Amino acid sequence: MNTTIKKVVLTIVAAGSLTFAQSQKIAHLSFDSLVNMMPETKIATEAAQTFLKGLEQESIAMQTELENKYKDYMEKQATMSDLLKKNREEELQQLQKRIEDFRNQADQEYRRKTADLTGPIMDKAKKGIDAVAKEGGYKYVLDTSSDRTSVLYHEASDDILLAVKKKLDSMPMATIPGVAPAGSGGIKAPQQNAPKQAPQKK
C-alpha cells in the first residue's frame, strides 16, 4: 500500500516538474545583431553622421578663428599698447572658453540626437520580439549580444533571431525623427537651429 502511494506521489512530482520545465520555455537572440539587420538602422546611422559632421565643421571653424587671432596677436603684440594687448588677450580667452563650452554641449546634443534617432528602432525591435515570443509560447527571451550578456549558462534554447527579423520585415518601417520616410528622398538636411557644439572624439 505504502509502495503504491509512493509511486503515485513520484508520478505527480515528475509530472509537475515536466509541466514546470515546459512552462519555462526559453529562447535567445542577439539584440545587437537584430538591430544591425534592420534597414532603419542604416538610415539612422547616416542621419547621425550628417548631424555630427555639422557640429564638427562648426568646431573646426571656431578653432581656426582662435588660431588666426592668436597668430595675429603674437605678430603685433610688440607694437600694441597695454590697453589693446589686454583687450586682445581677454578676447582670446573668451573665444577659448566658447570653444570648450561648444564641444561639451555638442557632445550632449549628439547623444540626445542619437537616442532620438534610434529610439523608434529599439521600440520596433522589442515589439517584434514580443510578437514572436507570444506566438512561440516563450516565457523568457535572453539577449546574447556579446558586450552585455549576463547569462553565464543555459540549456540549449531556440534562436529566434531570424524569426523576429521576418516579423519585423512584415511591420511598417519605424519613423525616424528628422528623416524622410523610406522612398521619399532619404535624409533631410540638418536643421538650421542645430546646436553649435562639436562632440568630443569617440
Structure characteristics:
202 residues, mainly alpha, 5 helices, 3 strands, elongated, disordered C terminus
Give your account of this protein's structure.
The chain has 202 residues and is mainly α. Helix content is 65%, strand content 5%. It contains five helices and three strands. It has helices at 2-23, 31-37, 39-76, 82-136, 161-169; strands at 26-29, 140-143, 158-159. It has a three-stranded parallel β-sheet. Helix 2 packs parallel to helix 5 (161-169) and helix 4 crosses helix 5.
Q: In terms of structural class, how would the helical and strand content be classed?
A: mainly alpha
Helix coverage percent: 55-70%
- What would you report as the Rg, rounded to the nearest angstrom? 29 Å
> What series of H and E elements makes up the topology?
HEHHHEEH
Low-pLDDT runs of 5+ residues are: 3-21, 184-202
Please state the average pLDDT score.
81
Q: Could you give the order of strands across the largest sheet?
A: 2-1-3
Distance between the first and last residues' Cα: 75 Å
Strand content: under 5%
Outline of the structure:
With 202 residues, the chain is mainly alpha-helical. It contains five helices and three strands.
Task: Note the topology.
Blueprint: H1 2-23, E1 26-29, H2 31-37, H3 39-76, H4 82-136, E2 140-143, E3 158-159, H5 161-169
Parallel strand pairs: 1-2, 1-3
